[in-house]
């Protein structure tokens, strides 16, 4: 909720969480009556396979937080152990919802830059810790194609954070701001009331301002 400045009125929105992974947003918000669809390539796996695939990533994340503690702002989480505890709770919540959610179509296997949804299926698409953070592996063309695709399936898209894995602003942010206009999308940066990677206090917002007939 804090990554994306979500508020109570978003409860009426049709939401997409893209690159949702083993996170608990869809499970928690569905329990509150929200309409959330989560997409990730790992949703082709079953529960046991997902649990196994998460293990290495969690240890890697812990290593970075311990070794480079000063790169993070600890106001929200407190310390590394609390991040790990919340991460585990999120994983457990997600997995407890996973098989049933898959049957209902809440968790769908899929991958950017091509999504299997009709235009404007969603009011708002969310994408956290996938775009920009892996700028060393996903190039600018991938970012542009992914954001244009999210802009096709959702009226608005929010992306957070805008840092790469080393804690520097991704070099693709300014290029994306410059070039999404060519695709008929308005892109801007808006502040968020959350900071974990130091300096990561804004999200990218992409809006499709074309008429519905375009
Ligand atoms: C670091 S995790 C972030 C998970 C969650 N959004 C969060 O913030 O906790 C990145 C996720 O992106 C997924 N992913 C990788 N490539 C993708 C793609 N091309 N399209 C959508 N998701 C992708 C991975 O499977 C992984 O679950």
UniProtKB/TrEMBL annotation:
It comes from the Bacteria. InterPro entries: SAM-dependent_MTases_sf (IPR029063). This is SAM-dependent methyltransferase.
């Amino acid at each position: 909720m804090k990554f994306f400045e979500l508020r109570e009125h978003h409860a009426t929105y049709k939401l997409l969480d893209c690159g949702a992974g083993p996170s608990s947003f869809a499970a928690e918000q569905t329990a509150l009556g929200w309409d959330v669809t989560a997409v990730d390539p790992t949703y082709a796996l079953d529960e046991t396979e997902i649990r196994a695939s998460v293990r290495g990533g969690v240890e890697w994340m812990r290593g970075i937080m311990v070794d480079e503690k000063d790169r993070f702002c600890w106001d929200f989480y407190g310390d590394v152990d609390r991040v790990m505890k919340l991460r585990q709770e999120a994983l457990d919540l997600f997995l407890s919802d996973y098989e049933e959610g898959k049957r209902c179509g809440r968790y769908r296997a899929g991958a950017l830059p091509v999504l299997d949804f009709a235009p404007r299926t969603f009011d708002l698409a969310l994408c956290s810790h996938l775009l920009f953070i892996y700028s060393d592996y996903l190039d600018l063309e991938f970012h542009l194609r992914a954001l244009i695709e999210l802009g096709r399936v959702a009226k608005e898209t929010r992306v957070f954070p805008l840092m790469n894995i080393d804690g520097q602003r991704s070099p693709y942010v300014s290029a994306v701001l410059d070039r999404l206009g060519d695709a008929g999308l308005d892109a801007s940066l808006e502040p968020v009331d959350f900071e974990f990677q130091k300096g990561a206090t804004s999200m990218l917002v992409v809006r499709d301002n074309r008429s519905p007939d375009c």
